[in-house]
């Protein structure tokens, strides 16, 4: 299948689903942080990056499909979204392995989630806040940590994006 094959309803619907799905996925993570009080570790924050890039990219794919841009534009954007989600899935697998103790995490693990409140004495805040370790899951639901659920979500969005990129 060529990236220059005409696009159609599959690409438009997939791009729309991916835009909403990726935004909802990262929105859920942000909700757990800002509403639920879960402080993300360094690897948690890194796993959000593919979504921060991917959701707007899929919005561009949706617009390209609606506006009947050349097919390689829409398909290329969907392919890029699929690649981002595969990268995110890899980050989630790595983080899950760190949590399960299968391999070591990064040396600076726990240094990326300091308190973001800038009022008062910054040094006192730095001494009071202990960022979470990447090797300890904040919680588990149905046996999976947030990183484990990210693996599943990333795999789903990667499959949708790659299918749409290559489907006639």
Care to describe what's here?
By secondary structure, the chain is an all-alpha fold. The protein has a single domain, classed as Bromodomain-like (Up-down Bundle), CATH 1.20.1550. The chain is 64% helix and 0% strand. The protein contains five helices and no strands. α3 runs antiparallel to α5 (146-166). The longest helix is centred in the middle third of the chain and has 29 residues, at 71-99. It is elongated and about 55 Å long. The protein starts with 8 loop residues before the first helix and ends with a helix. The model is unreliable at 112-116 (pLDDT under 50).
Question: Keywords for this structure?
Answer:
about 170 residues, Bromodomain-like, about 0% strand, elongated
Largest sheet: none
List segments where confidence is low: pLDDT < 50 over at least 5 consecutive residues. Answer: 112-116
Question: What CATH architecture do you see?
Answer: Up-down Bundle
Q: Report the span from N to C terminus.
A: 7 Å
SSE order in H/E notation? Answer: HHHHH
What is the domain total for the residues?
A: 1
Shape: elongated
* Secondary structure category: mainly alpha
Helix-residue proportion = 55-70%
Mean pLDDT: 85
CATH C-level: Mainly Alpha
CATH topology: Bromodomain-like
Q: In percent terms, what proportion of residues is strand?
A: under 5%
How large is the count of helical segments?
A: 5
- Strand tally is 0
Using the CA coordinates, give the radius of gyration: 18 Å
